[in-house]
Design a protein that fits this description.
The chain has about 300 residues and is an alpha/beta fold. It has a single domain, classed as UDP-N-acetylmuramoyl-L-alanine:D-glutamate ligase (3-Layer(aba) Sandwich). The protein has helices at about 35-45, 60-75, 120-125, 135-140, 140-155, 175-185, 195-200, 205-215, 255-265, 270-285, 300-310, and strands at about 5-10, 15-20, 30-35, 50-60, 75-85, 90-95, 100-105, 130-135, 160-165, 190, 220-225, 230-235, 240. The protein has a nine-stranded mixed beta sheet with strand order 5-4-1-8-9-10-11-12-13, with helices on both faces. The protein has a four-stranded mixed beta sheet with strand order 3-2-6-7. Helix 1 crosses helix 9 (about 255-265) and helix 10 (about 270-285) packs across helix 11 (about 300-310). The radius of gyration is 18 Å and the shape is globular.
Length: about 300
Amino acid sequence: MSRVDILSVGEPMLEFNQLPPDEQGRKLYLEGHGGDSSNAAIAAARAGAKAGYISAIGQDAPGESFLQLWEAEGVDASTVLRRKDAPTGIYFVTHGPEGHQFTFYRSGSAASRMVPDEMPEKAIQSARILHVTGISQAISTSACDACFRAIEIARAAGVKVSYDTNLRRALWPLPRAVATIHAALRMADIAFPSYEDAVALTSLEKPDAIADFYLEMTPLVVLKLGRMGVMVATREGRTTLPGCTVEAVDATGAGDTFAGNFLARIVLGDPPLEAARYANAAAALSTTGYGAVAPMPRPEAVRALLDQNG
């Protein structure tokens, strides 16, 4: 692997996203790509950063589809393993009055079989930021340990660690999720909790209290507030940026788009507040189409929305 700015670790999943029914009332699904850690890497690459990915995929059609996707998006996949005896995971997205819902088929997937010894030390040591997520650790005990090993390698080499909580209650019991996610955040330099995740993980409801809680663990907290925007908090101060108004149809992958764009702007030289302003607009634009990857915006679209919002 050539040196990358942002190296993400986790599980890619082939996506089937529900579209509005056709004239006969039949349910239609759009095939695409997902997986929070893969989404973040692609978003970072579209924003202009050099991104790479650590994972494992099956020797199957979904795995081939991902290899083609990463090549097209400029994401270095040389540290992605191929497994003959395990499939690439898939998931379905459905939409209803309470938003989007996920149904996963990932048990025994290739990525869930990652182990600590498979973490590529040289690639991690040469990156600028290692990006890990709660889902990456929730898919199996061995994957959880592998992520901790990747974080240890990064910290020993002086590589910054970013962590997106991405809590999925269906994947693990809440007490285990709390213990694992918070242990990882104590080893991180940047935290990306969503408001909903933070309420579940901390039992706190006020954004300032949530920021204070996580600032005890990590020096930079970027609290994603959905349509309400984002709070950027350090131990020196905090600022809340309002959300950007768009015609949203599907929020799948919006948080991953935010994280990838934020990290890209950081490695490209932006201070955290400006990186968050950019990522806020990018995440909003990602909700204007269906699927996790296809609607991710390019820089020109993000700049146009920022100019529109003053």
